[in-house]
Every structure is written in C-alpha cells, then in structure tokens.
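Rotation project, supervised by the postdoc (A.L.). Task for the rotation student: set up a whole-complex structure prediction and record inputs and outputs verbatim in this book. Inputs entered:
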Amino acid sequence: MNDTNAPFSEQEKDGFYRAIHERRDVRSHFLPDPIPSPVLSRLLDAAHHAPSVGFMQPWDFMLIDSLDVRRQVHGIFLRENEKAAANYSGERFRTYRSLKLEGILESPMNLCITCDRTRGGDHVLGRNSIIDMDLFSTCLAVQNFWLAARAEGIGVGWVSILDQDELAEVLGLPESVYPLAYLCLGYVSEFLDRPELAGKGWRQRLPLTDLVHSNGWGRPLNDPALLQALDEVAETHS
Amino acid sequence: MNDTNAPFSEQEKDGFYRAIHERRDVRSHFLPDPIPSPVLSRLLDAAHHAPSVGFMQPWDFMLIDSLDVRRQVHGIFLRENEKAAANYSGERFRTYRSLKLEGILESPMNLCITCDRTRGGDHVLGRNSIIDMDLFSTCLAVQNFWLAARAEGIGVGWVSILDQDELAEVLGLPESVYPLAYLCLGYVSEFLDRPELAGKGWRQRLPLTDLVHSNGWGRPLNDPALLQALDEVAETHS
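Outputs recorded:
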C-alpha cells in the first residue's frame, strides 16, 4: 500500500500522464475479444471514484452486450447522423461522410453511464446554485472510466449522435434518469498517435497559450516563466 | 518515449490508479506555497488533452491569483451559501454549518475553467443531437486537471455554490462563455484517506454492485464472475 501523502514517484507520474496523453476517442480498430471481469470491474470502480457534488454519486452503469439492444441504438444513430450530415456541403460534406463516428456493433461491449437526477433527495449539498452539477459530476465519472480503460489497453468511444429520449426508451430508463454518455468499448488493434479528427484534417489542436487568461477574460498572462513553460509543455505533446 | 501501443507496465498502472483513488475534493488543508510554472503548465496541458466533441476544445483557463477578484468571488459564495443552508434544519443544519465548503481565499490560486459555446462555429461534429456536449467535454477537461493535480501533490476543490451570472460578470466573460468550474488549488498539508463528506457522516459511498445493470435499467447482472470481481474491487477501495 502507498502512503496516501507520499509524493508520486517519477514512474507513477509517468504512468498517469501516459494515460492522459495516449487516450483516444476510438471509433475504428475495435477487436472482438471480451473484456475480462477483473479488468471491467477496475474500470467501473475507477468511474465510481470520481468526485460528485455532495457525494451524490448520481451515476449508474448500463452494460450492454445484447446485439438486439445495440442494433436498436445503432438505428437511432443512423437516423440522427442523417440529420447531422445535412449541415455540411461540398468538400466538408464528403469529409464528414468519410469519418467513422461510432463502433456500436463492432465493439464487444457498450456502456451507458446515466445520471439519476433525483438521487440524494431534494437538497443535495453544493447543488443549490447550479442544478446541472449532477450531470457535470457524471461526466467526471466518464473521464475516470475513459482514462482507466486506456491504462488497461481498452479503447473507448463516446457516441453523441443519438436522440436521448429514444435511447432512454430503449434502455427502459425511469423519467428521472438521463442517459448522459453512450460509450463503445473494447480492446483495439492500435491507438492512433493523435486524435483522428486532427489526422483526417477536420480540426487541429488549439495552441494552449491562447487559452490561458489572467484574472479575467482576455487579460494576458504577465508571467514570462509560465508562458515559457506552457510553450515547452505544448511542444512535447501534439 | 513510450511506444503508444505497448501495454502499460504494472508500475504505470499503479501510478494511474493511485491518482484515481487518492484524489480528493479539497476545501481545507491548503498551504500558501505557490505552484511552480512547470507544474502548473503540466496540469493545464493535461486538461487541454481531454476529449471534446468534434475536437471542439471549448475550454479556456482563467488563472486567478488576484486577491481582489477572489474576494469578490468569495462574496458570491457567502450569499449563495446562506440560501443553501436554509434548506436544512436541526442536526442536518448544524452539520451543514460545520462543513468547510470552499478554499477561495486560503488557496494560493483559483482557476475558472470556462466553456465557449460558440467555438468551432455553427455545426460542431457530434453536437447536433445533444447541444450540451460542449459543457460535458469541458467537464472531462476538469477531471484531467484534477487528477493531474493529485499526481503532482496539489489539492483541488470545486466550488459549486456560486451564482454563475455573477461569477461571469466578475470575470468579464463574453455572453457565449459559461463559467463551468470554479476551482481552488494549492499544495496541501494532507490528502484525507477518504472523502470528507463520508468522514463527517454526511453521506457514504454507494455499493458499486447496486449501480451496475445489464442491458437495461434494473436488469440484474447474470454474470457471477463479474459480480464477484465487482465485490472484490469495491472492498479494496473505500
């Protein structure tokens, strides 16, 4: 066991940052191999250790291996994606159509992480001013899951081109439960060395220094050491 | 450099999971020591490497060390917290009042992570069906930051008891920019070995197995190996 208050060793930090920088949004490259129970349990446990407003833990985990359920969800995706594609024209339309945007049927397992908006009763500590803190907390669980999956060599893709009402109906969710994230998971033939949308020329990573402000919107950093450090770290990771 | 597709070593995985399990929502225990620029840069870079819908990268990072700005934000907190406290009575009210819920002035640095809802133009890939995917993406950046901070020995606390309109005004945010997460950061005298709200008897961690469903809401897992693995992993981490 680690002493909770001992500093992380360089090796521990390297392992952590490796998950951060090598995590990808996976749509292709899924292998059919099943995820062993101990591995899947570690991923779910990592998600369950996300922070949540008032320790609300509003999440549930819907594991979906049924091909019938996945076909229904895939049908929702196809209908929504037709609508989405209609927003583009010309070269952009052709690029959009060339992109693979989900792996619902090829991945061996889907997972819907939901948010129960009534969990913890009427007054959840810290959720008085910002009612959507429960949704935000559930997102933090999604990211814990996503990173843990990468550390275990498992790819994850978030399918956001779905009608949430139709998805809720397929999964039989109670009215108070929102299907926040629909994920495809599985071992992969490879993790790309940079995000697929960058590789395909859809959109590039923004310069980090452009996104950092000092004490208010648009106020530049007046700290040369920090500016230099930001430039240096940004150069290390594409 | 790591080969992107090599499995994580046990040491790398241990470092990763240590950040997941030892991360805390810190309100007390902040030390005044400044965060060195290279460390702060690594945290911001980790946040910037979160996944985002359509590679939108809707986040900006407002670093706040000005005591004047922090005092204004603290004023917003005090007013919102009065309203929140009025939801409780009796013993629960007394417990609520005994909890420290922010470290705005004691921590050496505050950080507001915002979401620019117009970034990437009118049609962001993958944001056609669920318009809030930009907010959800920004949450993933928050969690990357939070975990990276833990790996660097830095505590983070999310202050959610704030009026977002007032906060936006203090920070001079444009109308399209939402102040998603207001964080306090700094080195700490200690990381607690379990969440403060659990330690103080406010609310306990839910059993993981109660939260996992199979192919639809409320359908139990029929997989004894997975059930056993979930029990085992849950016993390891409080």
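Student's summary: The two ends of chain B are 34 Å apart (CA to CA).
Supervisor addendum: Chain B touches chain A through 125 residues (CB under 8 Å).
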